[in-house]
Amino acid sequence: MPGSSGRGELHPRSGENDMALDAERQRALIAQRHGGTTRRPWAIVDRDGFPYWLVALAVFLAWMGYRIATNDRYNEGAAFIDDGLITTVRITVFSFLLALGLGLVAGLGRIARNPIVRNVARTYIEFVRGIPILVMIFVVAFIVFTSVNGWLDRPNRSSSEIKFIVAIGIFYGAYLAEVFRGGIESIPPGQTEAGRSLGLSQRQTMRTIVLPQALRNMLPAIGNDLIACFKDSSLGTLLAVGEITHKTKLYGGTNFDYRAAYFVLAFMYLSITLVLSLLVSWYSDRLSAGRAR
Amino acid sequence: MNELNDPATRSVPPMVEVRGLHMHFGSTYALRGVDLEVAQGEVVVVIGPSGSGKSTVLRCINLLETPTAGTVHVDGVQVNHKKADLNAIRAEVGMVFQQFNLFPHLSAVENVGLALRHVKKLSKRETAAIALAQLEIVGIPEKADAYPRELSGGQQQRVAIARALAMSPKVMLFDEPTSALDPEMIKEVLDVMLALAADGMTMVCVTHEMGFARGAANRMVFMDDGLVVEQGQPRELFEHAVEERTRQFFSQILKH
């Protein structure tokens, strides 16, 4: 018998499988759009086959680590630069938390029923996406902070680290907003209807039904943005925030040993990024395995 | 439209009362003035061809769709009123969907308990007790910790029924509950629905299961093109349909 609800259920017989497939496809699509992968990079049997790339990177990193550990010049550079690691991590954590908050609000705003809310969210997203991150940092540090402090009649003495965190947070918030929107829209409307039909409010439905499912779909994309955000913390050097890139510049400038300084810096970014990326894949896999059970 | 002059339905105010329901999406009309009354404890089966508007009527009763015109009352309360407490009304109207719409990230017992916890604000222990009892009623207590993925279609739909029943609704709406099921699983879902009907639950079912209509329905409503064409007791309608359109529909679905 044909489905007569007239709402476009094309394959009434295979409903559940379709939904699973849809979720899978959506997840892949979201990940793809953000240049990520939903596959395990370290799995021995993988569609890509044995992860030679991972071995290659690991060997390369081991060689770099060995050079740094055994060469006095490199060693000295590393000792100076790693003072900035805490700052780098702090910037990444706080700016990304800010971005997640902004992204969630703007992402929800983007699909809100109220046209004013929708347009405000859209304005924010398009505004930020129309500005290079480099310019964004200067705009926030030299225009936004100066103006806001002026309006509040406060001395313009916010630390450059705060300015930088806010700039990066606003920037990544706009990109995460689209991730959130996509993730939420990937959940079939039937889920919301089921929640509402049970008497759950719109907010409760979002919090207990839609978001938990959407987050699983979004995780690869969020992880990607986290890694990008971590790498962009290097731009802190523009505001002389004492993170590792700035430290590297200082070290290179005072000792005239740019070779050692940037060798160490590249090693730090590459190793941390690789670990982060493996963690994200592992966690995404664990979540989707939890769902498949 | 023939009103049903059954004294049983006239003495008490109807549980569901739909009056002059119009619904259009843009310029396409889904409903063109539907009247429908369902008495307390009555089981009404709504049938009709694809696109006749039967699902839309159902979805208007708990306001998943907002009617363009007309009124919907549930237990005397006007549902499509500006000041109506929608969440409270919906909590008293259970709905079962064609595609089950179970929450895939929650186990069976969590599916059933979600609204108890968040709408009725029951404690964890009370929630678990009621949810388990409901799963027992639909016959799958052993699947309490299973996730929807691990359940057959029939089991999923039974969990969905338990989920709706857990809120102790005044009315249950069934929107083609067996249409997405493999044939061998239809019976287990219908059995649950039959038991529910025998138990005195007020039910409005959109379904093509004529066996169920014959066995459980007090009244059958035939809809076509956004209107109620004809209604009556199932046997009467099967055998002595007045309208040509109704007879034609029966001849099409009962042929094989």
Describe this structure in words.
The complex is a heterodimer of chains A (293) and B (256). Chain A has helices spanning 15-33, 52-70, 72-81, 85-110, 115-129, 133-151, 160-185, 189-197, 202-232, 244-255, 258-292. By secondary structure, chain A is mainly alpha-helical. Chain A has one domain (21-292): MetI-like (MetI-like fold). In chain A, helix 7 (160-185) crosses helix 9. Chain B has helices at 7-11, 54-61, 86-91, 108-118, 124-137, 153-165, 183-198, 210-216, 234-240, 244-253; strands at 16-25, 28-38, 43-47, 69-74, 77-78, 93-96, 171-175, 202-206, 219-224, 227-232. Chain B contains ten helices and ten strands. In chain B, helix 4 packs parallel to helix 6 and helix 6 runs parallel beside helix 7. A six-stranded mixed beta sheet of chain B has the order 6-7-8-3-9-10, sandwiched between helices. Chain B has a four-stranded antiparallel beta sheet with strand order 2-1-4-5, covered by helices on one side. In chain B, 38% of the residues lie in helices and 23% in strands. At the A-B interface, helix 1, helix 8 and helix 9 of A face helix 2, helix 3, strand 6, helix 4 and helix 6 of B.
Write the layout of secondary structure elements.
The complex is a heterodimer of chains A (293) and B (256).
Chain A: H1 15-33, H2 52-70, H3 72-81, H4 85-110, H5 115-129, H6 133-151, H7 160-185, H8 189-197, H9 202-232, H10 244-255, H11 258-292
Helix pairs in contact in A: 1-9, 2-3, 2-11, 3-11, 4-5, 4-7, 5-7, 6-7, 7-9, 8-9, 9-11, 10-11
Chain B: H1 7-11, E1 16-25, E2 28-38, E3 43-47, H2 54-61, E4 69-74, E5 77-78, H3 86-91, E6 93-96, H4 108-118, H5 124-137, H6 153-165, E7 171-175, H7 183-198, E8 202-206, H8 210-216, E9 219-224, E10 227-232, H9 234-240, H10 244-253
Parallel strand pairs in B: 3-8, 3-9, 6-7, 7-8
Antiparallel strand pairs in B: 1-2, 1-4, 4-5, 9-10
Helix pairs in contact in B: 4-5, 4-6, 5-6, 6-7
